[in-house]
């Protein structure tokens, strides 16, 4: 870790395959460095990322780096652990062929099936204020764009396989939108300690859709019901960070203004599940220790948060990660994360390496996997920096 002041420009090309059993899973995490360390952000972010993750940390890390920028970071997530689409198409073909025995087996494999897919992009800037403004020591801004789709099967309890397929539903919810945030941060003295305090004002634009079709009709693309809505609102994030020697601690409050997006039904809809998307305040705390060649930190969500109703997407994560600079040009990273808001197996390990190709060009590689060894994510970053 460099202690001298520096100016940094980070260019991130992020290609990823992130498998997650939670809908809308942490789409706000965009860079391979963060995921290689288990997704820790509260005290582990640098000046180029702090505006997105912890506004208060920006004034702390800007003492070590006078400014930086992460320019378009792109991510793609996909999860189909139950092969939902394949089995739903198989059910349609089996109904056409009159294969009731095979249909019963296919419907059994669809019980509890889920599928997730999303794409995201971001730009983030952070800098130390050079105008000697007593109210603002550091500032930053970011923009985030994302789109996601989640699918789940709701099986009926009919005993006849064909009737069960006709009365069972494939529920699809889609969410797209963007955040435009501006962050200001300053240091505040309290009880003999210095704290970084920051706030982000952001414009949020969201579009939400829901589609419903029967399992029997899924293969021909027939949609029974659909609903949609769009919202635009102002929201706020706040964060506090403390540093003393190598130790850091912090807390963030994301989306301070709660609201619910109610999806409007099409005029032809007479009955269907009402899908609403809820945004609720999320509180996360973190601690860490940072040395020149080694760092270790951990985050914990203090409350549960979710998204669409009728979907099992509640989240409350514990995340831990660290990095070790081995020799010139090589830094190893690793992490662990677990979702405590679900009974599903949501424990993951992460690992990564940063290679210094040139003094100002770095490559980050990362992977995410289950304890039994199944690969659940891959990431790659190209970083360009000028010191």
From TrEMBL:
Pfam families, sorted: TraF_2
Protein name: Plasmid transfer operon, TraF, protein
Highest taxon of the lineage: Bacteria
InterPro entries: Put_conjugal_transfer (IPR032811)
Keywords: Signal
Signal peptide: 1-25
């Amino acid at each position: 870790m460099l202690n001298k002041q520096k100016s940094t420009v980070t260019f991130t090309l992020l290609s990823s395959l992130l498998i997650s059993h939670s809908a809308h899973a942490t789409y706000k995490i965009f860079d391979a460095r963060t995921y290689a360390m288990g997704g820790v952000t509260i005290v582990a972010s640098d000046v180029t990322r702090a505006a997105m993750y912890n506004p208060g940390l920006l004034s702390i890390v800007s003492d070590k780096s006078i400014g930086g920028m992460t320019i378009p970071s792109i991510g793609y997530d996909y999860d189909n652990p139950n092969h939902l689409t394949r089995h739903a198409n198989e059910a349609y073909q089996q109904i056409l062929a009159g294969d009731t025995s095979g249909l019963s087996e296919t419907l059994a494999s669809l019980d509890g099936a889920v599928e997730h897919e999303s794409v995201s992009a971001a730009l983030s800037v952070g800098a130390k204020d050079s105008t000697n403004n007593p109210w603002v020591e550091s500032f930053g801004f970011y923009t985030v764009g994302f789109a996601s789709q989640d699918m789940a099967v709701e099986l009926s309890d009919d005993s006849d396989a064909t009737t069960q397929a006709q009365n069972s539903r494939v529920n699809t919810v889609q969410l797209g939108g963007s955040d435009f945030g501006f962050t200001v941060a300053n240091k505040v003295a309290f009880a003999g300690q210095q704290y970084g305090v920051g706030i982000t004002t952001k414009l949020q634009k969201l579009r939400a859709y829901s589609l419903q079709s029967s399992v029997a009709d899924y293969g021909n693309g027939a949609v029974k019901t659909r609903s949609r809505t769009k919202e635009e609102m102002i929201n706020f994030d706040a964060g506090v960070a403390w540093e003393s020697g190598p130790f850091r601690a912090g807390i963030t409050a994301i989306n301070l203004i709660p609201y619910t997006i109610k999806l409007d039904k099409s005029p032809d809809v007479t009955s269907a599940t009402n899908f609403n998307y809820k945004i609720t305040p999320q509180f996360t705390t973190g601690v860490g220790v940072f040395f020149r060649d080694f760092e270790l930190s951990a985050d914990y969500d203090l409350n549960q948060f979710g998204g669409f109703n009728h979907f099992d997407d509640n989240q409350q994560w514990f995340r831990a990660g660290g990095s070790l600079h081995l020799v010139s040009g090589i830094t190893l990273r690793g992490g662990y994360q677990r979702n405590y808001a679900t009974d599903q197996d949501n424990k993951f390990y992460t690992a990564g390496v940063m290679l210094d190709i040139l003094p100002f060009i770095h490559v980050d590689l990362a992977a995410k996997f289950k304890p039994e060894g199944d690969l659940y994510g891959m990431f790659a970053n190209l970083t360009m920096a000028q010191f």
